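Sharing a chain and its predicted structure for anyone who wants a worked example. Both blocks are below, sequence first, tokens second.
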Amino acid sequence: MRKTISLFIAVIMLVSMIPVASLPSAATGYGTFAYVNASGISQEEKTCYIIDGTETELDESVSSWYAAVDVGDVIKWEYRINVRGNVNLILCDSSALMATCGITVRNG
């Protein structure tokens, strides 16, 4: 019994030493983000749906603003992403987005 408790405590101690940055991002839902436009001018904050790489579609009926916020990590889509309507995407500082199978943009 003591061996089991000792092993359990050792595992808890090891897990507690894992850096938070190496854990998967749990940031989903909505957030507010300022951005710089294509001309380099700072813009007002927008409420954006935070993407995490599990999306299959960016649709204006859900949100017209999306944000990639995984700082220092790459958000990777392993399948083709469909964009519907007028959709804006903010790439926050130190974040990157990779669509390995491409992005399809459709009218309307």
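Comments welcome. The chain has a mean pLDDT of 78.
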